[in-house]
Amino acid sequence: MNLPNVLTLSRIVLAIVLVFLLEESSSTGNILAAIVFAIASLTDFCDGYLAKTKGLVSNFGKIMDPIADKVLLLSTFGVLAHIGMIAWWMFIVIAIREVVVTASRLVAMRQGQVLAAEHAGKIKTVVQIVAVSAILLYLVAQQSEFCSFWFYSAQRAWVSINYGLMLLAVILTVYSGIDYFRNKK
């Protein structure tokens, strides 16, 4: 097991920690959740960078990296929907796409093909990470005494930005799913 693969697997463990922290619904839990999400997101960049630059690309990594991304993001989106920070329909659309594409990859794997993530899928993941990061920062600011003097005056704009980022994430998620199946032929 090489370092990029360890980083990939750590993202799954960090996703579990993140869920518990967000469900806590406390100021400390939200701050720690934002930190854990930042670390998990950083592992996504680092595992790919190390694998490519150090010649450590593996079939395990090609399969598990997108799965780890899905575990991290779907669990986070699920909790954010549960606590009312995103619309349930957004979570459902994203979850359906992720499950269908992952199932297709697993079927391809059983047939001896290993399908790495495509460019549109990588862009989708980055936008999803940005959307989650913005929402987590909103949660931190919402409960922070330091931010309270300006937070409420900017709350409507912040909510609109978060909604716009999530809408973009949903659109890119659907597009990348369509692109995946179009290119798979």
At a glance:
By secondary structure, the protein is an all-alpha fold. It is built from six helices and no strands.
Identify the notable features of this structure and list them briefly:
mainly alpha; 185 residues; single chain
Q: Could you explain how this protein is built, in words?
A:
With 185 residues, the chain is an all-alpha fold. 85% of the residues lie in helices and 0% in strands. It is built from six helices and no strands. Helix 3 (59-82) packs antiparallel against helix 4 (88-110). The model has no long low-confidence stretch (mean pLDDT 89).
Structural class based on helices, strands and sheet pairing: mainly alpha
Range of strand content = under 5%
Separation of the first and last Cα atoms = 32 Å
CA-based gyration radius: 17 Å
**DSSP strand tally:** 0
Helix count, DSSP H or I runs of 4 or more residues: 6
* Unreliable parts: none
Could you report the average pLDDT, rounded to the nearest whole number? 89
Shape: globular
Give the topology string: H per helix, E per strand.
Answer: HHHHHH
The largest sheet is: none
Helix coverage percent of residues? over 70%
Question: Strands, helices and their partners?
Answer:
Layout: H1 3-24, H2 27-53, H3 59-82, H4 88-110, H5 119-143, H6 148-184
Helix pairs in contact: 1-2, 1-3, 2-3, 2-5, 3-4, 3-5, 4-6, 5-6
